[in-house]
């Protein structure tokens, strides 16, 4: 194996990669209202690295890493996707490495599984099938997996010698159990990935960058699922060959990622080397070394993501965080937002079984439900509270309302033509995405509502419909110009037959983009004006009193139970560190990436961060840990 040359320059980015990166940035800028990139300067400028990210939003995850990183990333991509039209073409253009996954070639086994027998004393476990099973007649080797109606896949410890019996590796918690009467099953063959690992080692030996999502497939569970060991084999295998590889964790957090014009945060963690003792251990006991490194990578990923057991808990904790924030604070910076989301999550996780925490969460939940039943949200009440504190006099408050009403009156008519022209594209793209969501949910055991596929499918569908509809608009414009301009008119007017359609062809994308920006302004201004205008509503007044009481309780709880270990910083006495009203990043360790700078944001759109993609259903529907039923899917 060729040894890495420390003086070797970074691989030159091919033109196809540079072009793809520019296209990705444009797509992300259109789809997302804001993308905050944190700590991108910690990514080493040279040397071999492995970028490790959580997989929360299917193909959008890879696009975000390509768009935000200065390194040319060679992603590991499922061979199933690599061979698909369009997606495969893009993957080849950016130098992706295809990986054949067991789940992509899984096949249904004959017969049914009846039971699983575990001998704890001898440390053995076996799976028993009915008389129709043919374990010895199919390709089941040591390392293959069996998938059925239980949580997780069961690992085969040795090749079967009987048609109805398979020896398994010791069961993990929660232990699998077979439903009464037996169940069907699938066999996931053992795949030798030596060719893939060799390709990875060659990329790293040339000071290249490998991108991988070790959770396997994307999901929308709201927290990390167990990581696959492949990334550890790559890191330890390369290091054992003398390649000075570094691992860089990257957290991808989305705020209702399946919605158009939502928000996202890309946060890079500190690079680290595979521990030397694990590199040495890998040479003699690869399984133990890989397990230890996998725990380290999991911990590092947890530090750059927000992880909660379910959407309901996440929503409540974000409400607690808002209640704790200073009244005059408009918005946290992207960095502080992520930091305190994690701190509240981690703090309450440690205290969740204490009577004080349970009582507080119960009160917050009752307040949230009461507000929703009256047609209000906490973020709207927070806005009203901030406005009343900031603008103490009634004329100033009404000036705030009138200002946003004026924005609506001006921006809505200006954006209307763009909305009308692009409505068919949005409707068809969304319909296609929702259809694919149903298929993805039916085919997966780890997805909650398959919201992680919606954004990717919308982008892919729009990539087809946009050229079609824009071509139609240009043709229609040319046809209308031809009718309106006849040969009797001066030569200058005759040129308009060409100028009009060509102008529409060139300017329509820009016109559409600025129509979207104007739509953002009037949409959020309408919500702001409505909330403040109706602040005198009797329900609103009662809820504001309840909120004030809860604020006192939350701040007291944090001061007594959490501050000592968790909040020694921005929320401490003396002000909020890094508070600039949400206008820009604190740049002490950030370089602007051009992905979209932080600008003054609308309080109403302060969403629940979720590293497992958005778990909020359509129309605000809540999704909990159990699988949701999408219409048309059993």
UniProtKB/TrEMBL annotation:
GO MF terms, alphabetically ordered: glycerol-3-phosphate O-acyltransferase activity; glycerone-phosphate O-acyltransferase activity
Keyword Membrane: yes
GO biological process: phospholipid biosynthetic process
Organism: Triparma verrucosa
Biased composition (Basic and acidic residues): 576-592, 619-634
Residue span, Phospholipid/glycerol acyltransferase domain: 49-255
Keywords (A to Z) from UniProt: Membrane, Transmembrane, Transmembrane helix
Membrane-spanning segments: 397-428, 464-486, 498-518
Region forming the signal peptide: none
PANTHER family, per the entry: GLYCEROL-3-PHOSPHATE O-ACYLTRANSFERASE 1 (PTHR31605:SF0)
Region annotation (Disordered) ranges: 573-634
Keyword Hydrolase: no
Protein name as annotated: Phospholipid/glycerol acyltransferase domain-containing protein
InterPro entries recorded: GPAT/DAPAT, Plipid/glycerol_acylTrfase
């Amino acid at each position: 194996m060729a040894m890495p040359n420390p003086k070797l320059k970074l691989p030159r980015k091919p033109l196809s990669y540079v072009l793809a990166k520019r296209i990705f940035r444009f797509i992300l800028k259109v789809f997302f209202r804001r993308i905050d990139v944190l700590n991108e300067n910690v990514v080493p400028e040279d040397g071999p690295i492995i970028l490790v990210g959580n997989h929360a939003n299917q193909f959008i995850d890879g696009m975000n890493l390509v768009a935000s990183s200065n390194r040319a990333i060679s992603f590991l991509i499922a061979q199933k996707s690599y061979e698909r039209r369009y997606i495969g073409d893009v993957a080849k253009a950016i130098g992706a490495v295809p990986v054949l996954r067991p789940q992509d070639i899984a096949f249904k086994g004959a017969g049914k599984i009846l039971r699983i027998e575990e001998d704890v004393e001898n440390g053995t476990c076996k799976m028993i099938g009915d008389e129709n099973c043919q374990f010895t007649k199919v390709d089941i080797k040591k390392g293959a997996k069996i998938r059925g109606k239980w949580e997780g896949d069961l690992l085969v410890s040795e090749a079967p010698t009987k048609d109805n019996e398979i020896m398994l590796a010791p069961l993990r918690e929660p232990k699998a159990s077979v439903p009464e009467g037996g169940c069907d099953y699938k066999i996931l063959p053992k795949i030798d990935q030596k060719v893939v690992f060799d390709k990875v080692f060659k990329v790293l030996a040339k000071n290249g960058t490998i991108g991988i999502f070790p959770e396997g497939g994307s999901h929308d569970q709201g927290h990390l699922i167990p990581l696959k060991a492949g990334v550890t084999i790559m890191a330890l295998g390369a290091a054992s060959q003398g390649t000075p590889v570094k691992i860089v964790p990257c957290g991808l957090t989305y705020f209702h990622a399946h919605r158009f014009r939502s928000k996202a945060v890309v946060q890079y963690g500190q690079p680290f080397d595979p521990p030397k003792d694990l590199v040495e251990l890998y040479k003699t006991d690869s399984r133990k070394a890989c397990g230890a490194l996998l725990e380290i990578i999991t911990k590092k990923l947890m530090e750059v993501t927000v992880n909660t057991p379910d959407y309901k808990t996440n929503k409540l904790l974000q409400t607690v965080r808002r209640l704790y924030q200073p009244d005059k604070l408009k918005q946290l910076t992207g960095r502080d937002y992520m930091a305190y989301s994690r701190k509240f999550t981690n703090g309450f996780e440690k205290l969740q079984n204490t009577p004080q925490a349970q009582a507080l969460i119960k009160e917050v939940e009752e307040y949230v439900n009461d507000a929703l039943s009256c047609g209000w949200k906490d973020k709207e009440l927070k806005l009203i509270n901030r406005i009343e504190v900031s603008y103490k006099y009634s004329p100033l408050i009404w000036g705030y309302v009138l200002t946003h009403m004026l924005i609506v009156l001006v921006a809505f008519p200006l954006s209307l033509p763009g909305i009308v022209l692009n409505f068919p594209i949005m409707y068809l793209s969304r319909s296609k995405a929702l259809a694919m969501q149903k298929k993805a949910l039916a085919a997966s055991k780890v997805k909650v509502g398959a919201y992680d596929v919606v954004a990717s499918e919308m982008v892919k569908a729009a990539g087809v419909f946009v050229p079609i509809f824009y071509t139609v608009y240009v043709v229609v414009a040319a046809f209308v110009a031809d009718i309106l301009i006849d040969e009797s008119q001066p030569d200058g007017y005759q040129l308009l037959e060409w100028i009009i359609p060509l102008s529409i062809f060139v300017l329509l994308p820009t016109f559409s983009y600025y129509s979207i920006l104007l739509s953002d302004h009037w949409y959020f201004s309408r919500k702001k004006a409505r909330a403040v205008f109706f602040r005198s509503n009797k329900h609103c007044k009662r809820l504001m009193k309840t909120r004030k009481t809860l604020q006192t309780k939350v701040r007291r709880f944090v001061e007594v139970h959490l501050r000592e270990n968790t909040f020694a910083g921005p929320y401490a006495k003396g002000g909020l560190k890094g508070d600039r009203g949400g206008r820009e990043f604190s740049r002490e360790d950030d370089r602007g990436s051009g992905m979209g700078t932080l600008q003054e944001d609308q309080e109403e759109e302060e969403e629940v961060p979720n590293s497992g993609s958005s778990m909020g259903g359509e129309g605000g529907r809540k999704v909990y840990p159990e699988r949701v039923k999408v219409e048309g899917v059993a």
